[in-house]
Amino acid sequence: MRHFLLVTLLMVIIMAAEASKKKERGKEAKGGAAECADWKYGRCVPTSGDCGAGVREATCNDQTKKHKCKVPCNWKKDFGADCKYKFGRWAECDTSTGTKSRSGTLKKALFDADCQVTIKVSKPCSPKTKTKPAKKGRGKEN
Fold first, then answer.
1. CA 26 – CA 46 distance, rounded (Å)
2. Per-residue pLDDT averaged across 80-91, rounded?
3. 95 pLDDT exceeds 60?
4. Which residues touch 19 (CB under 8 Å, ≥6 apart)?
5. Measuring CA to CA, which of 10, 36, 108, 128 is 20 to 30 A from 137?
6. Does residue 96 carry a pLDDT above 80?
7. What is the DSSP string of 87-133?
8. 22, exposed or middle or buried, with CB in 10 Å at 0-12, 13-18, 19+?
9. Averaged over 76-81, what is the pLDDT?
10. CB 114 within 8 Å of CB 43
11. Whose CA is closest to 126, among 76, 75, 90, 79?
12. Phi and psi torsions of 63, nearest 5°
């Protein structure tokens, strides 16, 4: 019985030592990428077309990584998803151009993106003014 317990204890110690060696090897492999603190990120480049899923390259010293990213497919693609803006209200419709506009101030620049401090966006004026439909009452009308 003692012999069995001794062998079992010895196997547990060996397995624990092997596990710690694997952890050390894993840290060494990842250590090179983690040591670099000055990563430079490029723009998000769509894999097909001018918007949608894409890839962004990150470089630091002689290391290069590729990260998945996404370019918006709406009006935001003009300035990209890396520049976050706080927008004001839409201005009244300019009848000469048929558009209304609003301006935004930079709130946050992700991935050290080169963003404009203020931007102005515009969209076509809506052809009709929206009216709220009258609510219908529930139950019997007496």
1. 32
2. 89
3. yes
4. none
5. 128
6. yes
7. E-PPPPPBTTTTEEEEEEEEEEEGGG----SEEEEEEEPPSS---PP
8. exposed
9. 74
10. no
11. 90
12. -100, 145
Helix (H, G, I), strand (E, B) or coil at 71: strand
Q: Which residue has the tokens 């520049």?
A: 83
Residue the block writes with tokens 């809506």: 126
Q: Tell me, what's the pLDDT at 82?
A: 86
* Longest distance between any two alpha carbons in the chain, whole Å: 97
Amino acid at 80: G
Query: What is the per-residue pLDDT for 104?
Result: 93
Average pLDDT of the chain, as a whole number: 80
Taking alpha carbons only, the member of 90, 83, 92 closest to residue 117 is 83
Distance between CA 8 and CA 15 in Å, rounded?
A: 11
Q: What is the mean pLDDT of residues 13-25?
A: 71
